[in-house]
Amino acid sequence: MNDDISSLSASALSGLIRQGDVSAREALAAHFDQLDRVNPRINAIVTLDREGATALAAAADSLTRSGADLPPLHGIPMTHKDTHNTVGLRTTFGSPLFADNVPAHDDLIVARFKAAGVVTTGKSNVPEFAAGSHTFNEVFGTTTNPYDPGLSAGGSSGGVAAALAARIQSIGDGSDMGGSLRIPASFCNVVGFRPSLGVIPVAPSRNPWGWLARTGPMARNVTDVALGMSVLAGPDPSTPYACPVPAQRFRDPLERDLTGLRIGWSPDFGLGIPVQKEVLRVLEGQLRILEDLGATVEEAAPDLRDADAVFDTVRSFDFALAYGDLVAEHAEHVKAEVRWNVARGLALTAADFIESALARSRLAIATRTFFEQYDVFASPATQVLPFDAGWRFPRQVNGIEFDTYLDWMRSACVVSAMGVPALCMPAGFSSTGLPVGLQLAMDHARDVELLQVGYCYEQATQHARREPELLRASH
Questions:
Q1: Containing domain of residue 178, as a range?
Q2: Catalytic residue (choose from 95, 124, 180, 356)
Q3: Residue 180 appears among annotated catalytic residues
Q4: Which end of the chain is less crowded, N or C, counting CB atoms within 10 A of the terminal residue's CB?
Q5: Number of domains comprising the chain
């Protein structure tokens, strides 16, 4: 029975709990049984609160028996990303400086998931301060990939992506500045969604005006992502951005006809971004599926010549603002990549900010122009297949050497700079059985339509149903 529960989607499990066919305590037992079976191989979950979770599940079962209205995710067991504050539960940010940190508040995304009825069980692993798309740190070590435990699960939401793929949980919370929802989703064969600005406010925040970083859900299917968005979306008085997509819109039907949908596909983003040939082989084989669904697919990309500069300047500023004081006081305890990003931010000049503002304006015009001609921008979610978990990051692709730890992430970073919603969909497997993700983006505030496109593609392919070998070996 526990194996059956572990394989259920959040939507299906929630329905069974709400109907009384499965108790919250049974769901929790299945969650912990699966975690105990597979987590030692992948190190996805790093902090647990079994006692607190058991009390929450018991309270959920009491609420079920009471006949009261039940929240949408009633009784669903779930860990939270370790860069998201959780009241009373250790939150380390993957940093030795915060190894014993116990917050006094929940971040907004955690609070909204809790209000929707989830049973919080622990925390999922992250890179230090979420810097980089490979999940390792000096506090908990490295998270590895359920499809090959010798390889990276991606990052920075690598812990939750691995937990989803390993059937430890059915839905999770992530964040994304330069691909931290999309890259681990691609590596682990799950769905990661970066919403439009303001749909899920990033709160609390030292810089409420920041626009590059987003938070969002991950799951094994689009239906669960939409369910997550229905409880996460909405304005917050602590942030200045209006919510462009009301939460109730995410309850709209996901089925739609893709006839006439215009898709611009680019293997290199029009910039010559290097992508492994095997990644492109898999993705180019998927384009026919979209055409069979009625879409028109043409090779095209927005004019992204300003995207790298916009991303670099804004990210550097954001890192200097968030971690500048910490690096100044404890540089020897902060990893090199964070120190490098902070240094770039502190070195920015007025001329840099002026040029960044002009570049962002040009990029916004180019993005708008592209979406006047095409409905969807399709591209590789990652430039590489999952790589050796012992590396800090890939140093080259197709013989092209990289200068920084961000260069192998450009496939996600340039789309972040566009400021639009982006979705990573499971899109098949390499000849060696490693997952490959397809990145889909639409214009600002078209989040629901983007999920509908992803859902139609998902129904035609069902790539996410292919379980990792790790699961069969664990039984």
A1: 2-474
A2: 180
A3: yes
A4: C
A5: 1
